[in-house]
Specification:
Elements: H1 4-17, H2 39-51, E1 67-69, E2 72-73, H3 82-96, E3 106-114, E4 119-124, H4 157-164, E5 174-177, E6 187-190, H5 207-227, H6 239-257, H7 260-268, H8 294-298, E7 301-308, E8 314-322, E9 325-331, E10 334-336, E11 339-342, E12 360-369, E13 373-384, E14 399-402, E15 407-410, E16 417-422, E17 425-436, E18 463-464, E19 469-476, E20 480-488, E21 493-501, E22 505-512, E23 520-524, E24 530-534, E25 561-562, E26 569-575, E27 593-594, E28 597-598, H9 622-634, E29 638-643, H10 651-657, E30 661-663, E31 673-680, E32 685-692, E33 706-711
Antiparallel strand pairs: 1-2, 3-33, 4-32, 5-6, 7-13, 7-29, 8-12, 9-10, 9-13, 11-12, 13-30, 14-15, 15-16, 16-17, 17-18, 17-22, 19-20, 20-21, 22-26, 23-24, 23-25, 27-28, 31-32
């Protein structure tokens, strides 16, 4: 029984504590770092406390934005070190790509409902028959496969050593299931369907190679774990630590990608009985964001593989730096068309040893890449184009890019965005770049500096770069139409491409005319539900925004921000460079440099709008389009590039020995269902998790509970 004296001490503490906060709901911290060691006991006690108060109201919003005093809003770290934040997402994408060495799975109509939130299920899968060698006759049955722990005779030494040690990262092992005598073919059956997040090849490698593959994947997993540290993902570490994070993650990605070429080769091979002499080495071009990719720039012939990790088909536009060349591109559907366009910048500042940034990009469409599948493209340089490029110039009249249903207009007087038309709906939208001067301050709370944690601008209205020189360029190709903008002065260089496909504390600001949302907007909670935000309002207490009207209205956006019809501006922070520390723990100012200049940041914003009540021409609501687009952005296809100048990788050799398309699924899932994870669990069981990605009222059809069954 709790002693009354301790209860009274706690009550007295709360009565004192609440005097420091204006909120009606008060967060009570208990303990601190290194205070608790018996986690199970403490969580049980917390659960008992929570369950003892069923009448307590549920808080459905969050606590953002945080502030530690009237001037100190912790909203700067939402944007600090944006390149590091993006690099972490690239690492996530590479780690999560499901290059399963599995045979096709068919998803049918089902009996098990799947509703939001995420439903998890663990199923035991003994074999997944292959259709590569032809389906078994109905009256012929395979001999049952022994349980995995009792079947080392089916594995080679390297494979068994991986499994018997109980490593958390397993190879996808295929076992031969021998049919009854007299059969004309063998059926391959799956025992371990997925290496955790990244396929590690097991066929045709010796023990040391196999161990290296497992270790390479483990290394990337560990580095990605480090990148989730609260000072790594937020950008609130010292500069030398940030540099080390980049070094570690780069190495992790390079290690994890080493077996990828062999894996894709094995998945695409036309004959499973033939030992291939094709050595396919693939990697992603991590420097393509500054128009450097050694293979695409310097190889006369190269292979491009596009892997789609989603459970439905995706069309993805491949963009690769090239040196003003003309190409012949052969894909699964024959010869592909392409565009050669100017890059967003000449990247002259990028002093990378032995590399020169390209001024041109090759653009082609990888159409309908199959679900959890691959498309291969063979790119062959034909001859050089004439030395023609788009020269930057100011336009003198309004220009339109796109088609009747999806387009944007550029104002001929200002060279800025004038209007956008999406889903057949046209809105007058302007967009420009602005900046805030960050407060320099000191340790005194009345003179707080803007720093890695804190965002504290010195003014309430941002300043425009409009006084700088604005140069423009126009690209109109077969696949893409672009309008290039470049602002430059003595301090800042900003380049932007507004693109439409035919299918300081720097901010980007969108202004919509004749639009009034009463200060209400919505941001996502880690890509899941949308949380309602209201300008200068807090749900839990009366808030005075006079002291910090800008910083106090900044919120984190990990996926999307929405304003609904019926304030006109959306303001998105994209970069920060500060000369003072905010004295919140970093101990140095946020001043990132590279190549002896301030670090450049490159990113993208996707603009989508439409009716909140009507269904669009593709049969989906605007909210459903947003959800699907967010998934495509988070789990975008992985592009692998490989040199193909050797005789063994000649087009005729590749065409005769490899299929140009592969899918792990016989049938795509509906677009409201995502395969969240698919990985080994315990003793012949596998964790297969699906998620329903729609909220209740997103779409009249796609928001309904979904059902599916797995035919294995």
């Amino acid at each position: 029984m709790v002693r009354q004296k301790e209860v009274q001490r706690f009550v007295d503490y709360i009565n004192l504590y609440i005097q420091w906060y204006p909120t009606r709901n008060v967060f009570i911290p208990m303990g601190g770092d290194f205070q608790y060691e018996a986690a199970e006991k403490n969580y049980i006690n917390m659960d008992r406390f929570i369950n003892s108060q069923p009448a307590l109201k549920l808080k459905t919003d969050d606590f953002f934005p945080y502030s530690s005093d009237a001037l100190s809003f912790w909203t700067g770290y939402f944007t600090s070190r944006p390149n590091s934040k993006r690099f972490e997402r690239i690492g996530h994408n590479i780690l999560q790509k499901r290059l399963e060495r599995i045979h096709p799975i068919q998803f049918l109509s089902s009996k098990a409902p799947l509703t939001s939130p995420t439903t998890s299920t663990v199923r035991e899968i003994e074999t997944i028959p292959s259709s590569r060698s032809g389906p078994p006759e109905k009256d012929k049955k395979p001999i049952p496969v022994q349980p995995l722990p009792k079947a080392p005779q089916f594995l080679d030494a390297a494979e068994w050593n991986v499994l018997k040690d109980g490593l958390p990262i397993m190879n996808p092992i295929e076992l031969l299931t021998r049919l009854l005598s007299g059969e004309k073919y063998l059926t391959m059956s799956l025992i371990v369907p997925l290496v955790t997040k990244q396929l590690v090849a097991s066929n045709g490698v010796n023990e040391s190679d196999n161990e290296n593959n497992v270790n390479s994947l483990r290394y990337l997993r560990e580095i990605m774990g480090i990148m989730q540290h609260h000072d790594a993902i937020t950008g609130t570490e010292k500069q030398h630590v940030a540099n080390d994070y980049v070094r570690l993650l780069t190495r992790g990605i390079e290690y994890a990608e080493k077996p990828t070429g062999e894996i894709i080769r094995n998945l695409l091979q036309t004959s499973i009985s033939e030992k291939l002499d094709i050595n396919l080495e693939l990697s992603s071009c991590l420097l393509s964001n500054i128009s450097i990719c050694h293979i695409s720039q310097n190889s006369d012939k190269f292979i491009v593989t596009v892997y789609n990790p989603l459970a439905w088909p995706v069309t993805h536009y491949v963009r690769l730096p090239v040196n003003n060349k003309k190409f012949d591109i052969q894909g699964p559907d024959g010869q592909e068309t392409y565009d050669i366009v100017d890059t967003i910048s000449d990247f002259a500042f990028a002093a990378v040893p032995n590399e020169v940034p390209s001024k041109q990009e090759l653009v082609f469409a990888a159409k309908e890449v199959p679900p959890m599948g691959i498309k291969l493209y063979y790119v062959n340089q034909v001859n050089s184009l004439s030395e023609e490029s788009v020269e930057p110039s100011l336009v003198k009249e309004d220009l339109q890019f796109g088609n009747d249903q999806t387009n944007f207009q550029i104002d001929g007087e200002t060279n800025l965005l004038k209007s956008v038309k999406i889903n057949g709906i046209k809105l007058d939208i302007t967009q420009n770049f602005y900046f805030y001067y960050g407060a320099t301050g000191d340790a005194d709370k009345t003179h707080v500096a803007s720093g890695a944690y804190l965002f504290r601008p010195t003014q309430t209205t941002p300043e425009s770069f409009i006084n700088g020189v604005l140069n423009t360029g126009i690209v109109k190709g077969e696949h893409v139409e672009e309008f290039h903008q470049k602002w430059s002065d003595n301090i800042v260089d900003i380049s932007q491409i507004i693109r439409v496909y035919k299918s300081k504390e720097i901010i980007s600001k969108f202004t919509v005319s004749n639009f009034d949302n009463k200060g209400v907007f919505y941001t996502d909670a880690n890509g899941r539900e949308m949380i309602k935000r209201t300008l200068n309002l807090r749900p839990d207490y009366t808030y005075n925004s006079i002291l910090q009207p800008v910083a106090s209205n900044y919120y984190p956006i990990t996926s999307k921000i929405i304003i609904k019809d019926e304030d006109k501006d959306l303001e998105l922070a994209v970069h920060r460079r500060l000369m003072k520390d905010d004295n919140k723990g970093v101990g140095e100012n946020l001043n990132e440099t590279e190549f002896d200049t301030g670090v450049y940041v490159r990113g993208s914003h996707y603009l989508l709008f439409g009716s909140s009540t009507k269904i669009n021409s593709d049969g989906k609501s605007t909210a459903a389009q947003e959800r699907i687009l967010a998934q495509k952005k988070l789990n975008q296809p992985w592009i692998g590039i490989g040199d193909a100048t050797s005789d063994a990788l000649a087009y005729d050799q590749i065409k005769s020995k490899l299929n140009f398309k592969y899918s792990a699924l016989l049938e795509a899932l509906p677009e409201n269902i995502n395969i969240l994870s698919f990985e080994p669990w315990t003793n012949n069981t596998y964790l297969l998790r699906f998620e329903h990605i729609m909220e209740k009222n997103d779409d009249p059809d796609l928001s309904k509970p979904a059902t599916l069954d797995i035919d294995v």
